Amino acid sequence: MSTATAGGAAKASPAPQQRKSVTGTRKRLAVAFLLPALVLLGALVVYPIGYSIYRSFFDKSGDFSGFANYGELFTDDTILTAIKNNAIWVVLAPAIATALGLIFAVLTERVRWGTAFKLLVFMPMAISMLAAGIIFRLVYEQDPDRGALNAVWVGVHDTFAESSAFPKAHPGQESPLKAGGGGSFITRTTVKAGEPVVLPLLGVPKEKMPDGAEPAKPAQPDPAKVTGTAWQDFTLGKGVGTRNAPDTTESGYPGITIEAVKDGKVVESTKAAADGTFALSDEADGAQLRFPASNFREPYNGVDWLGPEKAIPFIGLNFVTLSVILSYVWMWAGFAMVLIAAGLAGIPRELLEAARVDGANEWQVFRRVTVPLLAPVLAVVAVTLMINVLKIFDLVFIIAPGDVRDDANVLALQLYNSFVDRDSGVASAIAVLLFLLVIPVMAFNVRRLRREVRR
C-alpha cells in the first residue's frame, strides 16, 4: 500500500514489526523461557497420567485385561470401604474445617487478643502430616495413663460416676458367698441380728487396694443389729492366717456396698468402714446379704478412639475414621480461618451497620449479610479442602493401627497398598479414579473463578 505525497510520488509504508506481548517480550523468547517448565510439567504430570491410564488396562502379571481392574474397584470389599470412607471425608472434613474457620474468623474480630488466637489456631499448619499423625496416635491411646484425650474423658466420667475399687474381687473356696446373678455375690444363708457375719473376698492386689484401707477387724455382736466384716481374705505366705476369719494382716474393703435382700427386694444397704466392718439395723434380720454388681464394675477406660466401633451407624462412620478426620480438622481449621478472615476484612462495614440500624440482631446480620457476602471465599476454602482430602494418606497411615487400618482405609492408602502388593494395574485404576473425582471439583472451581473475573 502507498500514500500520496505533495510531489505526487508514491511512498511505501514501513514494514510491520513483530508483535510483542503487553510486557514487551517477543513470543519466541517467551516460549524459550517457558519450554523448560513445559518439559518438566510433561515429564512429571502429563506422562504419569497417560501411563497410569495405559497401565490400568493390564493385570498384575502385565497381560491385557481390559476393564477388569476398574470392575475390581467396585466389587472388592476393601476398595469399596476406601471409596465409602473417601466420600465421608469429602463431606465431613471440609464442612467441619470451614465451619470452624468461619466461627473463629468472626469471633476473633471482637476480641483484643484475636491476632494471638489466630496465630495459635494457624500454628498446626507448620507441622507436617507425619508429625501430626504421631502426635494424635498418642493422643488417641485408649490407656488413660498414656492417651491425653482419654485421660480427660475418664476424669470427667469419674467425676459423675465413680469407678469401682474392687473390679477383680470374688469369693474364694468354701466361702459363705455365692454368685447372685448379674455379677453380684450373695450369702448362701440368711443372717440374724446379734451374730456377726463374715463376707470374705479375694482378687484385689495389695497395691490396688483403696487408699485408707486398714487391717480387717472382726465385727462386734449387737443384739439389735446385723454386723459383719467385708475384707480381703488373703495373707501372703503358706499356712498364714485363717480362712473365712478376719486377720490383722489382711485388709478391710473400705466403702464396699452391702445390701440386705428379702424376697428379692433390698430392704437396707450400707457401706463398710476402713477396717471392713459394717452394721445394719434389725430390718436386715432374716435377710440375705449381697454385694451388688456395682462393687465390681470394671474401671472406665474411656472410648476406643482407634477402634472399629461405629460412631455414627447410619452413615457407617466408625471411631477410627472420625478420629483421623478430627486430627485433619485440627491442622486445617487455621488455613480456613485465615482465608475467611481475609474475606471478612473486605466486607464493607456500612452494610453490616445498615443491617443493625434496620433492627437486625447479630445472628441475623451473620446469617443474612456476613455469610452471603463471604460465599465466594467459603467456596474457595471448601473446594480447596475437598481436593486436599481426596488424596489424604499420611494421617490415616500413621494414626490407624494395623488391625483397624482396613476400616479407616481411603483411596490413596489403598493405592499404596496395591503397589506394595505389586498389583500396579489396580493401583493405576485407583489413580485414574482419583483423577476423575478431582476433575469435577476443579471444573467447578475454574468456572467460579471465571465468573468472578467477569464481575
UniProtKB/TrEMBL annotation:
Residues 1-18 have a biased composition (Low complexity). It is found in: Cell membrane. The keyword Cell cycle does not apply. Pfam families: BPD_transp_1 (PF00528). Residues 83-445 form the ABC transmembrane type-1 domain. Its main location: membrane. It is a multi-pass membrane protein. Residues 1-21 are annotated as: Disordered. The chain crosses the membrane at residues 29-54, 87-107, 119-140, 328-348, 369-390, 425-446. Keywords: Cell membrane, Membrane, Transmembrane, Transmembrane helix, Transport. Belongs to the binding-protein-dependent transport system permease family. This is Carbohydrate ABC transporter permease.
